[in-house]
Amino acid sequence: MKKIAVLVSGGGTNLQAILDAQASGIIKSGKVCCVISSSPNAFALERAKNAGVPGECVRRKDYESVQAFDEALLNTLEKYNADIIVLAGFLCILGESIIRAYPNKIINVHPSLIPSFCGDGFYGLMVHEKALEYGVKVTGATVHFVNEITDGGAIILQKAVNILPEDDAESLQKRVMKEAEHIILPQAVELLCADKIKVDGRKVEIIA
Ligand code: GAR
Fold first, then answer.
1. Among residues 193, 196, 194, which one has the least CA distance to residue 208?
2. Sheet of 30-37, strands arranged across
3. At CA 111, angle to CA 108 and CA 117, rounded to 5?
4. From start to end of the chain, where are the E strands?
5. Which residue out of 110, 128, 144, 182 is catalytically annotated?
């Protein structure tokens, strides 16, 4: 059983999808051991509490440097003996020391089909505003490994979502969450916990 640390910053609907998948048996090779929030007010911490999972808050602004923030995060991850890290709407950039400590063990969910609408500055609602502004007809979500490039690691799973003529950023965000993120994130978590993901550079193979 792998120990899963989920890192959050906001509402935590992706965290909820993971907790629900654990309860329903979709995630069976791992268990959420802690939820670490970058904000003390994140509703995600309430969700952790309701599920009986320990919650911690590590705030960037409490540390002088990125290195000191990383060290605090690393200490928290080690306190819970985390094997796997899931970024579920975590809005801070992880430093090199954490990425090096967990090679191919950190995954992120991004609300677009990477390599569209991603990279530095692309997060949350803004990703959907940009997709609508550009006029794409299909968007979706991506789960990928985390490396030192923002949204740049090898892709594990993607799921497409059609854009409807009446969509605004809010309606699109909700549909991408429900129809894509909340489905592929728990799937990827289970695959990673079950050691079913083979990665070689950018090439990712799912072992049946
Ligand atoms: C999700 O849509 C997630 O994909 C996005 O933030 C939202 C968090 O929602 N993450 C990014 O944009 C990262 N680049 P949640 O707190 O309800 O899971």
1. 196
2. 55-57, 30-37, 2-8, 84-87, 106-110, 138-145, 155-162
3. 105
4. 2-8, 30-37, 55-57, 84-87, 106-110, 138-145, 155-162, 197-200, 203-206
5. 110
What does the alpha-carbon distance between residue 204 and residue 154 come to, in Å, rounded to a whole number?
7
Instruction: Specify the CATH architecture of the domain 2-199.
Output: 3-Layer(aba) Sandwich (3.40)
Question: Would the pLDDT of 40 be above 90?
Answer: yes
In the annotation, is 110 catalytic?
yes
Task: Supply the angle between the helices 169-176 and 125-134 in degrees, to the nearest 10.
Answer: 110
Given pLDDT bands bounded at 50, 70 and 90, which one contains residue 66? confident
Alpha-carbon span 113 to 128, nearest angstrom? 11
Distance CA 141, CA 208 (A): 22
Distance CA 194, CA 187 (A): 11
Domain ranges of the chain: 2-199
Rounded to 5°, angle at Cα 143 from 179 and 137: 50
Cα separation, 108 vs 202, whole angstroms: 15
**Is the distance from CB of 91 to CB of 37 less than 8 angstroms?**
no
The closest-lying atom of ligand 1 relative to the alpha carbon of residue 123 is 12
Helices (H), 111-199: 125-134, 169-176, 182-193
Mutate to test the pocket of ligand 1, among 13, 107, 170 (most ligand atoms within 8 A of CB): 13
Model pTM greater than 0.85?
Answer: yes
Nearest Cα to 93, choosing from 29, 53, 38?
38
